[in-house]
């Protein structure tokens, strides 16, 4: 829709509520924050005034089912027992249903593979899910089959004393310094609701990442970086390395668009290693996800001999 002169000056959310009578104002505000509503193809805020000649685009995401349904989607299983399942998530797979991605998620695949036997403590829409990986991040992810396993794994992720998560990332340019513990607070970006941002405390939540440069490719000013998470904030590694001036290669939100034509097109972030205590047996368990082929040039330069896909 295009704004006429007589419609100008009203708040964006109020104007849309008067036009889109089937949607509540709170629903419209949520759609604006999630960028399903844009002004002149750019993000906006609910309180922004509408102006003559502006073009407003409204996209309604497909509704998310109250309960996800099982779908026969292939899974790479690293380990499975009566309590939990560890999978090697592929890049491009969403973990659980959400607006815009109601089907073909990891949860749909798990429900089929496990015959519906997943813990429901995380909510009907996220059975078994105790932690998440971004859609374009590949690698190790554990899900709980029983309530006991769910409670134990959630506590381990929260406490971090027994949980270990190591990631491999490729950045451009090289992080400075080459080894660092990054400790910041992270919160939702005030304008772009799809992004997270480093904020001043007490705002946001504490976020701690250890990183170490494993090798440098001077030809394209990139680095292979090993990261260890001590907290699990949304987009944490991506935000922290961007904060260090070294965004991830292939990152559509925090990365650089120029000079990457010769580099892999995917988000270069891989959940390589995951370790924790078994919820029932108490024994230490550790898993490695084979590293995708896109990482090969940097792995060879670093002299790392690892399992590859």
Would you give an account of this structure?
The mean pLDDT is 91. The chain starts with 11 loop residues before the first helix and ends in a 7-residue tail after the last helix. The longest helix is centred in the middle third of the chain and has 13 residues. Strands 3, 4, 5, 6, 7, 8, 9, 10, 11 and 12 form a ten-stranded mixed β-sheet that branches. Strands 1-2 form a two-stranded antiparallel sheet. By secondary structure, it is α+β, with helices and mostly antiparallel strands. It has three domains: 54 residues, Structural Genomics Hypothetical 15.5 Kd Protein In mrcA-pckA Intergenic Region, Chain A, CATH 3.10.290.10; 95 residues, Pseudouridine synthase (2-Layer Sandwich), CATH 3.30.2350.10; 148 residues, Pseudouridine synthase, CATH 3.30.2350.10. Helix 1 crosses helix 2.
